Amino acid sequence: MSKYTTGEMAELCQVTVRTVQYYDSRGILVPSELSEGGRRLYSEDDLRLLRVICFLREVGLSIKTIDSLLKEEDPKSVISILLDQHEQVLKEELANSKNKMQKLEELKRALKGTGQLSVESIGDVAYTMENKNKLKKLYRTLLLTAIPVGILQWGSIIYGFITWTWWPFLIYLVIGVPFAIWISKYYFKRVAYICPQCHEVFKPRFKEAFFANHTPRTRKLTCPKCGHKGFCVEVYGDEEHK
User: Fold this and answer.
1) Checking DSSP bridges between strand 229-236 and strand 218-222, what pairing results, if any?
2) Where would you tag: which of 19, 34, 198, 232 has the fewest CB atoms within 10 A of its CB?
């Protein structure tokens, strides 16, 4: 059976020699034997015990608590519960780290397209990322709503050309045009835009936004703060941005 000196125990458990000596002085890690020269020698069981002690210290238990725990009739059951709890904490930390890494990668990709790097541009990207999920949900809602309306529109047009009967298309116009106006107002109440010059987050007037030239993520608007007219980045915006 292997025997370990104090220094070897410290190295294997990545602690200092003084730490091992301290545990010895407190009586929670007593060496299995002493050499002829009086050197402390530890066994495999002692090494496993030191690793348990190091873990318990890592999860925040005091030396006094560890001493009491190790003197219990069944310390393994308590330690097993602590291990399960610590495992859950580590899993949550890992998931949080993965989430932060994903946001970091998205931020790096987004910054490549911002041109000149500034605190304001980073703020714009961070704001956009923060509201991205809400904006995606809004897009999905509009898409699901627009599909049946589009089917009604093209169905009535095709039916009209085939049969030269246009009353279904007239019905569509009576229903579809007001619906299009309503859905547009619903949409523009829930989005805002970031000015690329002064970085103001604002909501344009409905008429301006409705008729503005746009791309899937931007719209050509006039900033109410600095007066810049150009393509502004679309983000999800609550009622406080007016």
Assistant:
1) antiparallel
2) 34
Q: Nearest 5°: CA angle at 210, between 209 and 212? A: 60
Q: pTM of whole model > 0.70?
A: no
The three-state secondary structure class of 43 is coil
What band does 242 get if pLDDT is binned at 50, 70 and 90? Answer: very low
Residue partners of 45: CB distance under 8 A and separation at least 6: 32
Residues forming a β-bridge with 222 = 229
Cross-sheet strand order for the sheet of 191-194: 201-202, 191-194, 229-236, 218-222
Residue 20: which pLDDT band, with cuts at 50, 70 and 90?
Answer: very high
**Which of 50-64, 73-87, 121-135, 205-219 has the least mean pLDDT?**
121-135
Question: Which tokens hold the place of 117?
Answer: 């790097």
Distances (CA, A) of 154 to 151, 167, 193: 5, 13, 32
Closest CA to 184 of 155, 201, 170, 204: 204
Tokens of 10: 């410290």
